[in-house]
Amino acid sequence: MSTTAGGAHIRPHPPSHPPSPSRWPVWVVPLLLAIFQVGGSFGAQGGGGGRGPQGGPWGDPHPFGNGHDYPFQYLDGFGVALLLAGPAMLLLRRRRPVLTLAVVGVITGLYFLRAYTMGPAPVAMAVALLNAVVAGHRVIAWGGAGAAVAGYFTLTAFIGVPLERRGQGDRLFPVEQPSLGTVTFTVAWALVVLTAAELIRMRGQKLAAAARTRAEEEKRQASEERLRIARELHDVLAHNISMINVQAGVALHLIDGDPGPSGTAAARTALTAIKEASKEALTEMRSVIGVLRAEGESAPRSPTAGLDRLEELLDRARSAGLDVRAEITGERRPLPAGTDLAAYRIVQESLTNVSRHAGPGPVTVRVALDYGEREIRVRVEDDGRGVSLLDDHAGGSGIRGMRERAAALGGTFAAGPGPSGGFRVRATLPITEEPAPARPAGGDAAPDPRAAAPADGPAAADDRRPDTPGSAE
Fold this sequence. Notes:
Structural class: alpha+beta
Distance between the termini: 38 Å
Largest sheet: 5 strands, mixed
Mean pLDDT: 75
Number of strands: 7
Order of helices and strands: EEHHHHHHHHEHEEHEE
């Protein structure tokens, strides 16, 4: 199974199957039935047993019982017309299923009242019954079939002739009187057709329900993918643009306040950090937006963010003026893609918030990763003292995004003031191949004074909004 740059699965194309009869052009089934009924009926009457108006098909008498168990009237023009009229009415079966059923029933009844050969003449009636049931007219189909069978045998009981005289004489309807065998066979045939129609209807309903479920699942997956992409874009922009904003402010301050060599060198360092942050932002944005453009790609075009790029992330934070100290315990090893990306983004967003909200430096940040057997614990702490004066806009979703990343994997998340000041972010992410069922992350902790101050850029001042103590580890 192939994947796109965003890790979304692409299902292989299902094998092609011939379309079901319901998807055929409306004239196909009537045409096939017309050929089958006419050809089969002529074949059924064969070369003997029938006694037409002149005795036989060519005017020669045929002894009763020669090749047939019953006498019949040979097909004439009217009989052929009835055999063609039934399939012709099926052209209306999709638009007028009840009318089609009624007319085909009358045509089939006239055919047997005329005492023509049995043959495949009832097939059109079977198709009309099946179509009515599948179309949802179950009561009409069952009730109509029962009424038609009862009415036919009631009529033939009054106008019928003995079996040996079937199809003979000058009667308009030389039909035989009903017998127990004939009634039993007809009722059984109707029940088989109606039962088969019910089974087909139920199968169609199950397939339709399965199709609706698949469509809803695809919509849900698409919604989750859009949310994932939104998180990626937020993380890329919030981290790198915040770094650019802070370093640009530092560079401007140095250029204006210290035009000497030392100020120029410091400003150059800040501008270099701006260049690196902007380059990183462009690279990651191309990678994320490429997911929206890619079709059928088997691999990402650029490396996916993960803890293997942690040192690059920490170096960029150091270049922004933070004193970043990393501590990694446990057996460092490759993680499942979802867990690896979530851990990286939580560290990235935490460093972004420190650079934006920790206040005037120097600020020390401690990043700790603890690799357990079945989970990885991420902790980011700083000793900042307040919101930077450069921040002047509010509104953001950094804390919420980190919490949602952890909850989507079945992990826990907590953020709030540290025990000795500063701010602390903690997350525990399970190390499993498949994400665990999402469970709510923790609530809010005691408010941090820095959370109420305004912020600037893509991340918001409420990115520092803490979680509740109840969610702390």
